[in-house]
């Protein structure tokens, strides 16, 4: 006959794993908070078993440590989230500044091109007007010379 194996180790192992899972789940996955909660529950159970109040101080201390650990964890997460949002906003601001610099450069180049076009057109018109003025002056000078020359009999 074979001897039956005891199921006690399996039952104890499953119970321990369930307890660890419960405390981790209740603590939101934070092992430090789970440990503090377990210590608090153990102190409370011990006080109930002894039936005495002297353990109340220790239980209150464990509860305070549990709450402080939980609050600290939440504060750390909030700080981390704020830093992430600040970093994201910083990246967006840098992208907007780069885009604005690009637009300013484009507008500057476009403005310079328009200025050069207007300057060239104005210069061309100015030279044309000066040339017309020179032709008119030369023509009038020739007419005046002919008029003066005709007074003295040298003209036509």
Can you describe what's shown?
By secondary structure, this protein is mainly alpha-helical. The protein contains three helices and no strands. The protein has helices at residues 8-26, 31-50, 56-151. α2 (31-50) packs antiparallel against α3 (56-151). The longest helix has 96 residues, at 56-151. The chain is rod-shaped and about 155 Å long.
Number of helices: 3
| Fraction of residues in helix | over 70%
Biggest beta sheet attributes: none
- Report low-confidence residues grouped into runs of 5 or more: none
* Class from helix and strand fractions: mainly alpha
What do the pLDDT scores average to? 83
- Beta-strand percentage? under 5%
The rounded distance between the terminal residues' Cα atoms is 158 Å
H/E topology pattern: HHH
The tally of strands reads 0
The radius of gyration is 49 Å
What characteristic shape results from the CA principal axes? rod-shaped
- In quaternary terms, these chains amount to single chain
Brief overview:
With 156 residues, the protein is mostly helical.
SSE layout:
Blueprint: H1 8-26, H2 31-50, H3 56-151
Helix pairs in contact: 1-2, 2-3
